[in-house]
Structures are given as structure tokens and as C-alpha cells.
Specification:
Blueprint: H1 3-36, H2 41-47, H3 50-84, H4 91-94, H5 99-121, H6 127-134, H7 149-166, H8 170-187, H9 205-211, H10 229-233, H11 257-274, H12 280-286
Length: 287
């Protein structure tokens, strides 16, 4: 099929899926509210702060209309390149294992990869793009969708690229992505839940909320999405209990969309200006 036509079809299908997903996550958010407190959906509606909700909706709509299809095409390209060069490592081994083991292993492996990718996003190199996600001062389940396009690209390239390389079948990667996606919604809800003894194995909403604090030790902790075991193994766990500290990012206005979009671009521009390439610094400095 002609590439431009395929691009349009992919875009339309993604937008339809995104619309269905938005309905699903809205119902899920209300369900979490009903389970979590006596006021139910009314309290959950109040927690969707107008300014926070506005930016989250803008990011979500831009993702649906502009970002998602190119990212999905990038993922497809990564898979094709790895396949064509024989860089799929363990597919023959995984093909003979029971389906349920492969599925669970893919979820755990994806979360392990995501743990280290998330730590990388908190490095100076990628933080300017990842900070958009952290700038939400009224974190709810909808905060999960608050990602800069460059952050979406790095996430897709690292997470999917690594799983493709390891040889997991496409169905298992899709399954793991769905599990981690919806569990990611769960850990972003505005609830003080610690999950009790399960919190020793799984990430809880309280644990992840500490990761989003504006200041304090939680800022550099709790990078896993599903399994808190990874944070415990690598010494980045911080889960003293429910979190009531202020959320957000110092020096970033959560209500400004354009400035947050330009933040990583400005950083890249400055990095280009500091490169010791003959003539490059002078040209960047003049613009």
C-alpha cells in the first residue's frame, strides 16, 4: 500500500483507539474514586484541577493528532532494522516456552528496562523533556498522558527497541505495554494507598507520588512502574507512607504549554552552541 495512504489509515485508527481509551480511562478514574473514598466521583472531578487538566488535555490531543503515528512508525522501523540485520536474539528460545511465562516475563523485563530508562530521563541530558510530566502539581490518573513528544520518542525507542532485540514476540510486547500502561494510570491516581504487604513487590500510588514531589529525597527515587522490587534491588526505594508533600518542578510553570514544549529544544540549541566544531558555535551564536 502507498505509504502516505497507510499513514492516514494508521492515523485514523489510532485516533479511534485513543477516543475509546479516553472513555475507558475516564470510567476507570471514576471507579478508582468510588473505591477510594465515600464522596466517590465528585471528589475525583474536583481533583482534576482546571489548569492541570487543560495542559494534560492539550498534550493528549497533540499526541493523538500529531505525535502518536510518527512514533508508531519509528517503532516499526526499529523492528524492521533489527529483523533485517538478524539482531533478534532469543526468539527461538521464547517461542517454545509456555505463553503465560513469556507474557509475564515480558512484563517484568519491560519494567526492568523502563526502570533504567526512567533513571536516564532524570539525567541532565533528558530531564528538560521529562520535566513536563513532573510539572503537574495536581497529579491524577490523567497525568500519565502528560509527556513531551521527545520523551515519547525516547521511551518508545528504548523500551520497544530493547524488547525487540531480546526476541519477545509482538503479542507479548503488546500485552506488556498494555499492562504497564494501565498500571501506570493506577499509580498516578490521587490516593494515599500503600498496598500493604503487596507494596514490597508492586509500586503503589503512595510510592509513586513521592517520586513526583517538588523537593526532597523522593525526587531521586521510585523509578519503576509496576515492580517496586527493582527500586529495592538498586537502592532507589523511598516509601515512608502516604505522600502529602507539594508536587511539581521548581522553576517550571505547570500552566504554560508552549514554554515547556520549547524547554528541551532550547537545551539542545545551547548544547549545539557549546560544541567545539569549527564555525558551528559562531553560527549558532549569531542566531
Amino acid at each position: 500500500m502507498n505509504e502516505p495512504i497507510q499513514f492516514v489509515i494508521d492515523s485514523l485508527w489510532y485516533q479511534l483507539d485513543a477516543a475509546k481509551e479516553l472513555i475507558l480511562i475516564t470510567l476507570g478514574g471514576v471507579l478508582f474514586a468510588v473505591l477510594g473514598n465515600q464522596q466517590g466521583w465528585k471528589n475525583e472531578i474536583r481533583r482534576l484541577h482546571p489548569s492541570s487538566l487543560r495542559i494534560n488535555l492539550i498534550v493528549y490531543i497533540v499526541d493523538i493528532l500529531i505525535v502518536a503515528v510518527p512514533v508508531s512508525m519509528l517503532v516499526r522501523l526499529i523492528y524492521q532494522v533489527l529483523s533485517s540485520h538478524g539482531l533478534i536474539l532469543f526468539s527461538t528460545v521464547l517461542d517454545v516456552w509456555p505463553v503465560w511465562i513469556v507474557g509475564l516475563l515480558c512484563v517484568a523485563t519491560g519494567d526492568f528496562i523502563g526502570y533504567w530508562r526512567h533513571r536516564f530521563e532524570h539525567s541532565p541530558l533528558l530531564w528538560s523533556a521529562h520535566s513536563l510530566h513532573h510539572s503537574d502539581e495536581e497529579m491524577t490518573w490523567f497525568t500519565l498522558f502528560r509527556f513531551h513528544p521527545l520523551n515519547r520518542v525516547s521511551t518508545a525507542a528504548i523500551d520497544y527497541g530493547a524488547l525487540f532485540l531480546l526476541g519477545f514476540p509482538l503479542w507479548a510486547i503488546a500485552f506488556a505495554g498494555s499492562v504497564r500502561h494501565f498500571y501506570g494510570m493506577f499509580v498516578h491516581i490521587n490516593r494515599p494507598w500503600t498496598l500493604g504487604f503487596l507494596g514490597w513487590i508492586l509500586v503503589s500510588p503512595a510510592m509513586h507520588r513521592w517520586h513526583h514531589v517538588r523537593a526532597g529525597p523522593g525526587m531521586f527515587s521510585n523509578y519503576a512502574t509496576v515492580f517496586s522490587l527493582f527500586d529495592r534491588m538498586f537502592g532507589t526505594i523511598y516509601a515512608p507512607g502516604p505522600c502529602h508533600d507539594r508536587l511539581g518542578v521548581e522553576g517550571v510553570n505547570q500552566d504554560e504549554y508552549v514554554s515547556q514544549m520549547l524547554l528541551p529544544i532550547a537545551r539542545i540549541w545551547r548544547m549545539m552552541g557549546s560544541l567545539k566544531v569549527p564555525g558551528l558555535r559562531a553560527r549558532v551564536g549569531k542566531n
